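User: Here's a structure from my thesis project, written as structure tokens. My advisor, Dr. K., wants to see whether a designed sequence matches the one we expressed. Can you design one independently, without my sequence as a hint?
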């Protein structure tokens, strides 16, 4: 066991079979180790953690405080408060000019809750879901937790690290029940081509499957406005969250938009699995759509863009290969083969010897995982500059 791994395997009386297929979230190990090193007095530049560096916008915080002072916090409807569902529906209208009735929106505990309930609703034992490799690590584990399996399709720079309709058609089997994509993607920050997504939706509809599109990084795009998958069809599941654009990771609030017929089933699962979402978080989130909040979120977005525009060329100058410009999220997925063919050990060494925390490619799949690392850039430019200085010193030794 090296220092990145803090997992100790102790004997336990019973462990469910489904745990066999669930791998640790390696980046969490990196972050834990980074915190340990910081506690020992070491200076760490943390480019591993995937969350905004900015505080939650003030109107949201004020609304939470006011709600806590004026009322008891109680259970709320399992699909989310009517007010928040309606506010989300209005948001789709004002931001994307798309008509999404509040009845098709369910508020959840983060995008994670949305993914859990959506997968829980559509996946049976033995089912298979197609997803790109690399992609967000938890997705394959949501599927396997439900008794299904993720079929990871290797993707590269030639398709902007996204699935294409051809890849979906080629990999669809008798067991396949759906396709899961994210745009912008974690870890690559790349977007899905809208026409390609439309072709995928049409193909999957023909096969009686489901398409799940994770739009959690919407709002964090830097080269023009993007369209939601709901523009294509009412027949897709769209996952989203207050975590990233609204800088609310710790509030645990997200949502799913689903095709109409699924709502009652989703509600049944939500009722049984966790009753309702955080009351205070839902009341606070009503202020997420205030002009003042959006102004703050947009300011943050322009800072992320500046951070990307600093880090991207700096990493390329160091010798990391980044063939596709990441145009969203706050990640850079970099080929590190100029330095190593073992990105896991490389991440470990960079943390221990250079004091820079980065995520090993291993987290995001199998395909060329050893050749990649992910940099998460929501940090002030001087911090990024210091990170680059340390990496330069480390890689030139
Ligand atoms: C692509 C993607 N989906 C979902 C999530 C889960 O987000 P949350 O549960 O905080 O909304 C994350 C978190 O990093 C993510 O990167």
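Assistant: Designed independently from the structure alone:
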């Amino acid at each position: 066991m090296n220092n990145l791994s803090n997992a100790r395997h102790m004997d336990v009386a019973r462990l469910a079979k489904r745990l066999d297929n669930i791998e640790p979230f390696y980046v969490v190990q990196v972050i834990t180790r980074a915190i340990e090193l910081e506690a020992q007095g070491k200076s760490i530049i943390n480019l591993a953690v995937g969350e905004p560096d900015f505080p939650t916008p003030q109107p949201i915080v004020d609304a939470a405080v006011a709600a806590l002072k004026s009322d008891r916090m109680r259970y709320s409807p399992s699909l989310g408060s009517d007010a928040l569902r309606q506010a989300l529906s209005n948001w789709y209208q004002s931001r994307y000019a798309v008509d999404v009735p509040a009845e098709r929106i369910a508020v959840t505990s983060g995008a994670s809750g949305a993914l859990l309930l959506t997968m829980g609703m559509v996946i049976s034992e033995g089912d298979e879901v197609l997803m790109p490799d690399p992609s967000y690590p938890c997705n394959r584990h949501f599927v396997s937790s439900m008794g299904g399996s993720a079929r990871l399709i290797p993707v590269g720079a030639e398709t902007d690290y996204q699935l294409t309709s051809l890849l979906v058609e080629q990999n669809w089997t008798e067991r396949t029940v759906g396709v899961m994509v994210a745009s912008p993607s974690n870890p690559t920050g790349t977007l899905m081509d809208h026409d390609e997504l439309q072709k995928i939706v049409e193909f999957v509809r023909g096969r009686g499957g489901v398409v799940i599109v994770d739009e959690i990084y919407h709002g964090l795009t830097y080269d023009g406005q993007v369209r939601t998958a709901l523009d294509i069809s009412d027949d897709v599941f769209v996952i989203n969250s207050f975590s990233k654009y609204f800088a609310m990771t710790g509030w645990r609030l997200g949502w799913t938009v689903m095709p109409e017929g699924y709502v009652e089933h989703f509600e049944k699962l939500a009722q049984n699995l966790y009753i309702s979402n955080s009351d205070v978080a839902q009341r606070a989130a009503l202020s997420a759509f205030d002009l003042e909040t959006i102004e703050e979120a947009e300011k943050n977005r322009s800072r992320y863009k500046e951070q990307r525009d600093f880090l991207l060329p700096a990493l390329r100058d160091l010798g990391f290969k980044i063939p596709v410009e990441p145009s969203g999220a706050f990640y850079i997925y970099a080929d590190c083969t100029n330095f190593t063919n073992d990105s896991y050990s490389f991440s470990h060494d960079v943390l221990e010897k250079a004091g820079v925390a980065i995520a090993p490619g291993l987290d995001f799949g199998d395909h060329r995982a050893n050749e990649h690392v992910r940099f998460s850039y929501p940090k002030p430019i001087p911090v990024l500059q210091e990170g680059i200085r340390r990496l330069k010193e480390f890689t030139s030794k």
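When you compare it with your expressed construct, this may help: Residues 50, 110-112, 136, 182, 186, 214, 216, 241, 243, 249, 254 surround pyridoxal-5'-phosphate (CB under 6 Å).
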